[in-house]
Model the fold of this input.
Amino acid sequence: MAPVTTQLPVHGSVRLSEEQILLRDAVRVLADEQIAPRAAEIDRAAEWPEDVRRLLADHDILAIPFAEQHGGLGGDLLTLCLAIEQISRHCATSGLILAVQALGAIPIQVAGTPEQQDRWLPGLASGDKLIAFGLTEADAGSDPSGIRTRAVRDGGDYVIDGSKRFISHGSVAEYVVVFAVTNPDAEKPSRRLSAILVETDRPGFRVTRLEHKMGIRGSPTAELAFDGVRVPVGNRLGEEGHGFPIAMQTFERSRPGIAAQAVGIAQGALEVAARYATERRQFGKPIGELQMVQAMLADMDASTEAARQLLYTACVEIEAGSPDAARWAAIAKLVAGDAAMRVTTDAVQVLGGYGYIDDYPVERMMRDAKITQLYEGTQQIQRLIVARALLARGS
Ligand SMILES: Cc1cc2nc3c(=O)[nH]c(=O)nc-3n(C[C@H](O)[C@H](O)[C@H](O)COP(=O)(O)OP(=O)(O)OC[C@H]3O[C@@H](n4cnc5c(N)ncnc54)[C@H](O)[C@@H]3O)c2cc1C
Done:
C-alpha cells in the first residue's frame, strides 16, 4: 500500500515583498482612520456602506485583484488577502466588499474571452461596477447538484428562469455570475451547469428578499428571482456545461479571501482584548497581570498567527499553480475560520460583561466571525476537500 503523506509546501516560506508591505500598511492606516469609526454604525444600521465602497474604489483597493491591462493594480492573491485582512480587522462587512468583488470577477478571469474581460473587468477594477456570485439556491447549498435555475437557448440568447438564495451584494451589484442548468441530460452531473454573466438591469431580474443576519450586517444578502431573463449567448463564461469546474476553480482563489477576513477579525478582537487587559483593574491590578487572562491572550495570539502564516503559505502555493490548490484553499479557510470563532469568543471572555454589550466591538466581531465557518463552503465541506486530497495520494 502506498503511504499517505502530507504534501510539503513546494514554493518556500513566505516573505512579503516591499510592495506588499507598503500596500498592507497603507490599507491598515486607511482602515484605522476611516473604516474603524464607521464599523459599529454599519452593523447597527444593517445598511450597505456605499461610502466605504467609494472609499475602497477611490483608493484603488478594489483594483488590487485586477490586471493592469484592465485598469487594476495587478496584485497577486497574497496582496489581495493582506488588504482584506487589514480592512476586516475593524469591519468584516467592509472586508467583504473587496472579497466579493474578487470572487465575482474570478469566473471572468479564469474562463472569460479577452473580449469579455475587456468588456467587464475595467468597470470592476475602477469600482464603478460591482459583481456578485450566484451559485447557492434554496435547495442547493453544499450540494450544487440541487441547482434548478435553468438557462434555455433561444436563438442567440439564453432565457433564464429560477432563483438564487444568499447572494452577497446581489441587491447592489450591476452584474451577477449565475450558475444555471443548461445541460440537464448531461451524462456527467458535473457538466449540467454553465456560468452566465447577467446584468441586473435586464427585464425579469428582481431582488425578492434581503436576509436579516447575525453578523456582516451591512453586507446585503439577497434572494434573486430570474423570470425569463434574456441574455446574449455571448454572456456565457467558458464552454457550455463547464459551470461546475469554473465554480470550483473560483473557490480555489476565493476561499483564501474568506480566510483573510477571518484572520483580520481575529486580529481585531485580539487587539481590543489586549488593550482592555491593560486598562481594566480587578483585585487591585490590571486583569492582564492575572495568569489565566494572560493564557487566554497568548492562545488567541498563537491561533491568529498560525492561521495567518498558513493563509500566506496557501496564497503563495495557489498563485504558483500548485496542483494541490483546492486543499491549500480549504485548509486555510478551515483553520482561519475556526481560529476567528475561538479568538473572538475568548475576546468577549477577556472583557467579561463588557464584552457582551455593544459599547465594545468584540461582540460584533464574534457575530461576524461565525459566517467565515459557513460561506464559500462550510467547515465540514472544507474537511471533505482536505480528506479527499489526502486520501487520493494513498490510492
Ligand atoms: C451571509 C451569507 C452570504 C452568502 N453569500 C453567498 C454568495 O455570495 N454566493 C453564493 O452562491 N452563496 C452564498 N452563500 C451561501 C453559502 O455558501 C451556503 O449557505 C453554504 O455553502 C452552506 O449551504 P446551506 O446553507 O444550504 O447549508 P447546507 O448545505 O444545508 O448544510 C447544512 C449543514 O449540513 C452540513 N453538510 C452538508 N453537506 C455535508 C456533507 N456532505 N458532509 C458533512 N456535512 C455536510 C453543513 O456543513 C451544515 O452544517 C452565503 C450564505 C450566507 C449565510
Notes: The two ends are 8 Å apart (CA to CA). Residues 132-136, 141-142, 166-168, 213, 221, 371, 374-378, 380-381, 384 surround flavin-adenine dinucleotide (CB under 6 Å). The chain has a mean pLDDT of 96.
